[in-house]
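Chain A, query sequence.
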Amino acid sequence: MCNIDHLPYFRAQLDQVLQREGFTPGLCSVDTGAGSALSDGFMSGMVRVRVREEGHAELVLLCKVPLENAARRAQAIGLFEREVRAYNELLPMLGEFQRERGVREGDGFFNVPRCFGAFCVPERLEAMLILEDLRERGFRMWNKYEPVDLKHTQLVMGYLGKLHAVSFALREQKPEVFRGLASYKDSMLTVLEEGDFFVNMLRSMCDRAVGTLEVHEEFYREKVLELQANLKEEIKRCVSAEFAEPYAVVGHGDCWINNCMFTYESDNKVLDVQAL
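Chain A, predicted structure.
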């Protein structure tokens, strides 16, 4: 499991949430365990918390925390800061904006887990997100080692479409609020500023891609090597809002399959998606 011994603030933050939810410190039992497989996260760990107290319904939480290694914490803290802002400010604002206009939850963008608490103190490398454990509602992850099929892809793209649609509506109806979102730095730019870990990983991927090419595929080899030599510049160009205008929107920032969970009918037909 993710070791929480390096997180002296963990229990204090958790206790604040439990008191808000009506539990009594000292009377409720709090059990912690692994929240995910070790290979599921690159920049964070997950701790599953099960809370029980007589007279209360059991509460199961998923706590996202920085990794124990100090260097990795330093690399990830900018991403935590952005994600905490998203849960504390952006997502509540988008939800309120939709409800003001009569958008029902089944029709709009509400596909996110409930957040019980989120905080980040970058200068101390402290951060924590306390979320509902969607597995308690039947959600589960796709096997990241398997290609994603069309139905799951359509669900995720539909969810992203709703997010982008709300962005356009916000841009048109509350332009001053939309302009304020520019202070949310793109996650890719944050990663680039925290060292060469991510770029080196992409360079390694380029090497592997070149290794799959046949001798006669020189055109593709040159293109991959050109990309490899200019990775930072290409990433910055790809995430630039200026290049996206006039269609710049609020984006997920890290929409890969491990950041999505799905529910299914009894015959394994996929029903819904939630994004983390």
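The first strand starts at residue 29 and ends at 34. The chain has a mean pLDDT of 89.
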